[in-house]
C-alpha cells in the first residue's frame, strides 16, 4: 500500500527541512543523512501524519541531528467527536499501522509556517486519511502526504480516517491554484486540479453505489463492500471494507442512513 515506499523530502540549503522521515529503517536513515551536503544540518523534521511508514524514523533522526520534530499532534490528535466516541467504544483501525507512540516536540497549527534553509512552508490541516494529517504548502507547490496521490486513492479507515473530513479537505485544496503536488508515495502530480476532481468523482461514485445497494435493503459493511468493491483484488478487500465503513459513517452523520442497533463496524445499515 506504499507503492515504491515512502518519499522523504529534503528542502532548503544549509539548514534543511526534512518532510516525512519514514519508517524505522537504519538503511533509510543512513541514506537520508548521506543526502546532506557537506556542512549542512537538519533544522526541522516535519511529519505529515503518524502512520508507521511516515513517522517512526523521526525519533532516530532527532537523536542523530538534534532537530525538533514538528507535526499536528500525537497519533489521536484531531479526531472528531464521532470518531472519538467510536474509538472509546472499541473501534480500532484496519491494520494500516498507526504509530501510537508518536508525539512531536511542537505541534503545528493550521496555517502556521516553518522556515529554514531559505524556504518557508505552510502547514495545512487536511484531516481525512488521518485525523492529524498535514499537507505542506511551498508557494504553489504542495507536499500532499497521503491525502492526494497520483497512483492510487487514499485509504480512509475509521476511527483514524474520516470520509466527511476527507472530502472537505479535498474541497479546501481545490480552492488554490497549485502547480505541482509531491505525494508521500509515488511520482509527483503535475495537474493537481484534475487529480483532485478525479478523486472527488471517485468517492462520490462509491457513495452512490453504496446508496444503490442499500436501496435493496439493510446490509452489513461486509456485504456492502462485497457488492460495491466487486472489482477489487482480494488482497485489497480489507482496505475496501474500511473505505466502505468510512463512507457509511459519513452517510450516517449526514442523516442519510441509519445503523442498527448502533453505529459500529458490526451494524446493519439501512436508508432513511
From TrEMBL:
Pfam families linked: Lactamase_B, WHD_BLACT
CDD domains with a match to the protein in the record:
metallo-hydrolase-like_MBL-fold (cd16278)
Looking at the keywords, is Hydrolase present?
A: yes
| One Gene Ontology MF term | hydrolase activity
Which keywords annotate this record?
Answer: Hydrolase
Question: For the Metallo-beta-lactamase domain, which residue ranges apply?
Answer: 5-185
InterPro entries per the record?
LACTB2_WH (IPR041516), Metallo-B-lactamas (IPR001279), RibonucZ/Hydroxyglut_hydro (IPR036866), Sec-metab_biosynth-thioest (IPR050662), WH-like_DNA-bd_sf (IPR036388)
Checking SMART domains in the record gives:
Lactamase_B
- The answer to whether UniProt assigns keyword Hydrolase to this entry is yes
SUPFAM superfamilies to which the protein is assigned, alphabetical = Metallo-hydrolase/oxidoreductase
Supply the name of the protein: MBL fold metallo-hydrolase
> Which organism is this protein's natural source?
Aliigemmobacter aestuarii
Amino acid at each position: 500500500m506504499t507503492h515504491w515506499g515512502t518519499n522523504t523530502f529534503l528542502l532548503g540549503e544549509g539548514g534543511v527541512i526534512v518532510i516525512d522521515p519514514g519508517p524505522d529503517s537504519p538503511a533509510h536513515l543512513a541514506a537520508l543523512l548521506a543526502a546532506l551536503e557537506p556542512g549542512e544540518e537538519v533544522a526541522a523534521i516535519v511529519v505529515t501524519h503518524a502512520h508507521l511508514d511516515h513517522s517512526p524514523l523521526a525519533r532516530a533522526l532527532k537523536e542523530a541531528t538534534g532537530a525538533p520534530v514538528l507535526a499536528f499532534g500525537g497519533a489521536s490528535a484531531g479526531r472528531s467527536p464521532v470518531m472519538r466516541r467510536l474509538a472509546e467504544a472499541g473501534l480500532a483501525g484496519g491494520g494500516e499501522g498507526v504509530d501510537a507512540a508518536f508525539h512531536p516536540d511542537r505541534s503545528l497549527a493550521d496555517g502556521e509556517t516553518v522556515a529554514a534553509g531559505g524556504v518557508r512552508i505552510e502547514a495545512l490541516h487536511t484531516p481525512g486519511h488521518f485525523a492529524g494529517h498535514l499537507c505542506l504548502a511551498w508557494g504553489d507547490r504542495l507536499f500532499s502526504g497521503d491525502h492526494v496521490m497520483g497512483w492510487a486513492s487514499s485509504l480512509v479507515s475509521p476511527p483514524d480516517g474520516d470520509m466527511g473530513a476527507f472530502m472537505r479537505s479535498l474541497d479546501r485544496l481545490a480552492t488554490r491554484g497549485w502547480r505541482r503536488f509531491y505525494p508521500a508515495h509515488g511520482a509527483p502530480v503535475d495537474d493537481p486540479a484534475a487529480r483532485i476532481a478525479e478523486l472527488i468523482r471517485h468517492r462520490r461514485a462509491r457513495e452512490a453505489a453504496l446508496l444503490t445497494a442499500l436501496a435493496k435493503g439493510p446490509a452489513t459493511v461486509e456485504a456492502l463492500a462485497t457488492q460495491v468493491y466487486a472489482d477489487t483484488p482480494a488482497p485489497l478487500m480489507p482496505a475496501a471494507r474500511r473505505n466502505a465503513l468510512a463512507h457509511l459513517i459519513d452517510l450516517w452523520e449526514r442523516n442519510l442512513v441509519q445503523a442498527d442497533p448502533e453505529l459500529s463496524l458490526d451494524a446493519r445499515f439501512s436508508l432513511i
